[in-house]
C-alpha cells in the first residue's frame, strides 16, 4: 500500500532533499536550476500536510525569492564588473587598489546579471529543499531514529530545526493578535513591534519541545562509563574531521585525490565503529519504531541518484556550467534531464497528502 509523505521514515526525506540540493550546487545551468526548483515545489505541494507546515514552506519560498533579489541588487551595486553587453550604467565611486574586485556603481552588463541570477537560484533551491525536508520530517520524529551516540547532538539540532516552523507559527499568532487590537502589522512600525515577541516566542517554543523530549528520556542511552563515552566521542570527532577533509580533497581542495579517498574511507570506518559501539551499549527501547522499507529506499535513492547523475553529467557532457556571456538558451544535457526525472520518483511511489487540521503539531502527536 502506498504511504503518505508524513508517514515516510524521516531520514528518507532528508536524504532526498540533500541529494536534490547537492545536484543544484553542481550546476549553473539556469534551465536545470529552474527545473529542480519546480520539481521541489511540486513535491511540496503534493505531500506537505497541515496549515502550519504549508505556511512555513511558503515563508521559506518567499525568503528564497528575496535572496535572489538581494543577490541581484548586490551585484548591481557592489559586484565585479564583468565584460560584455552593457545593460545600464550607474554613477561610480573610485576605490583604492587593495579593493580590487569590489566596486561601487559602474557599468552593469547582462553577463554579470546572469551570473548573479544563477547564484541566487542555486541558493533558492537549497533553501527550498531544506524547508521541504523540515516540513515533512518533524524534528521530533527525526530525533527518534538517530543513533544513541548522537543523542545530545541530535537534541541540539532538533531545537535548531524546530525554530523555523515555530517562528512562522509565532509570527502568524502575533500578527493576528495585533490585527484584533487594531495595531499595524505592516511597514517599519509593524515589524519593529513584532520582531522581539516573534523571535522570543519561536525560540521559547523550540526549547520547550527539546525539554519535553529530554524529560521523557527520548533517545536516552542509559548510564555508561564516562571514559568510554569520552573515547567514543573522540573517535567520532576525529572520524568526522577525516570525512570532511577527505571530501574536500576528493573535490580538488587540499591534498591529492588518492589521499582524500583514503581519509574519507578511514573516516567512514571510524564513524561506523563509533555508531556500532554506541548502539551496542545502548539499553533504550523504541515504541512503534520507524521502518526503512522499500518505499523509503526508493525516495532516498531518487535524490541521491539525482546528485550522482549531475556529477556524471558534469564529467561526460557539457552544459552543466555554461559560460557566462552567451546570453542564449543553455543546453540541456541528457544525463542531467534523466537525473531530474529520477528526482520526481516520490510523486509516483507516495500517496498524495490529506489535509489534517494541525500541521506540525499533528505530526508530533502521530509520531
Task: Give me a quick take on this structure.
This protein has 367 residues and is mainly alpha-helical. Helix content is 68%, strand content 5%.
Q: What value does the Rg take, in angstroms?
A: 23 Å
The SSE string, one letter per element, is: EHHHEEHHHHHHHHHEH
List low-confidence stretches. Answer: 355-367
Proportion in β-strands: under 5%
Strand order, sheet with most strands: 1-4
Tell how many strands the DSSP assignment holds.
4
Number of helices: 13
Number of spatially distinct domains: 3
| Sheet having the most strands | 2 strands, parallel
The helix content is 55-70%
Q: How far apart are the termini?
A: 19 Å
Structural class by helix and strand composition: mainly alpha
User: What is the typical, i.e. mean, pLDDT?
Assistant: 76
* General shape: globular
Structural descriptors:
367 residues, mainly alpha, two-stranded parallel ribbon, 13 helices, 4 strands, 68% helix, disordered C terminus
Protein model, in words:
The chain has about 375 residues and is mainly alpha-helical. It folds into 3 domains: about 1-135 and about 295-365, no CATH class; about 145-220, no CATH class; about 225-280. It has 13 helices and 4 strands. It has helices at about 10-25, 30-45, 50-80, 110-135, 140-145, 150-180, 185-215, 225-250, 255-280, 295-315, 335-345, 345-350, 360-365; strands at about 5, 85-95, 105-110, 350. It is globular and about 65 Å long.
Amino acid at each position: 500500500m502506498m504511504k503518505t509523505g508524513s508517514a515516510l521514515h524521516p531520514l528518507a526525506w532528508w536524504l532526498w532533499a540533500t541529494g536534490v540540493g547537492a545536484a543544484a550546487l553542481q550546476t549553473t545551468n539556469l534551465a536545470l536550476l529552474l527545473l529542480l526548483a519546480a520539481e521541489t515545489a511540486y513535491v511540496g505541494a503534493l505531500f506537505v500536510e497541515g496549515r502550519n507546515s504549508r505556511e512555513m514552506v511558503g515563508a521559506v519560498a518567499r525568503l528564497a525569492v528575496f535572496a535572489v533579489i538581494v543577490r541581484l541588487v548586490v551585484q548591481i551595486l557592489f559586484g565585479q564588473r564583468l565584460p560584455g553587453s552593457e545593460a545600464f550604467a550607474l554613477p561610480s565611486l573610485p576605490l583604492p587598489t587593495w579593493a580590487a574586485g569590489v566596486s561601487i556603481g559602474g557599468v552593469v552588463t547582462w553577463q554579470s546579471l546572469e551570473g548573479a541570477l544563477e547564484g541566487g537560484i542555486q541558493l533558492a533551491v537549497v533553501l527550498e529543499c531544506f524547508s521541504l525536508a523540515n516540513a515533512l520530517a518533524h524534528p521530533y520524529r527525526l530525533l527518534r531514529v538517530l543513533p544513541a551516540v548522537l543523542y545530545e547532538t541530535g537534541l541540539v539540532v532538533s531545537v535548531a530545526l524546530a525554530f523555523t516552523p515555530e517562528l512562522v507559527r509565532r509570527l502568524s499568532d502575533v500578527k493576528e493578535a495585533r490585527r484584533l487590537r487594531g495595531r499595524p502589522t505592516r511597514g517599519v512600525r509593524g515589524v519593529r513591534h513584532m520582531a522581539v515577541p516573534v523571535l522570543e516566542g519561536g525560540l521559547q517554543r523550540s526549547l520547550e519541545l527539546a525539554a519535553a523530549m529530554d524529560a521523557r528520556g527520548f533517545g536516552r542511552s542509559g548510564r555508561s562509563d564516562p571514559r568510554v563515552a569520552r573515547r567514543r566521542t573522540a573517535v567520532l570527532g576525529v572520524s568526522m574531521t577525516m570525512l570532511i577533509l577527505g571530501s574536500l580533497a576528493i573535490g580538488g581542495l587540499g591534498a591529492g585525490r588518492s589521499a582524500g579517498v583514503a581519509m574519507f574511507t578511514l573516516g567512514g570506518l571510524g564513524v561506523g565503529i563509533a555508531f556500532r559501539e554506541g548502539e551496542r551499549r545502548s539499553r533504550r527501547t523504541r515504541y512503534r519504531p520507524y521502518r526503512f522499507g522499500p518505499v523509503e529506499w526508493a525516495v532516498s535513492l531518487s535524490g541521491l541518484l539525482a546528485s550522482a547523475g549531475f556529477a556524471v553529467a558534469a564529467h561526460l557532457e557539457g552544459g552543466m556550467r555554461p559560460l557566462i556571456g552567451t546570453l542564449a538558451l543553455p543546453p540541456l544535457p541528457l544525463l542531467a534531464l534523466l537525473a531530474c526525472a529520477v528526482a520526481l520518483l516520490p510523486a509516483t511511489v507516495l500517496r498524495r497528502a490529506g489535509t489534517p487540521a494541525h500541521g506540525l503539531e499533528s505530526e508530533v502527536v502521530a509520531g
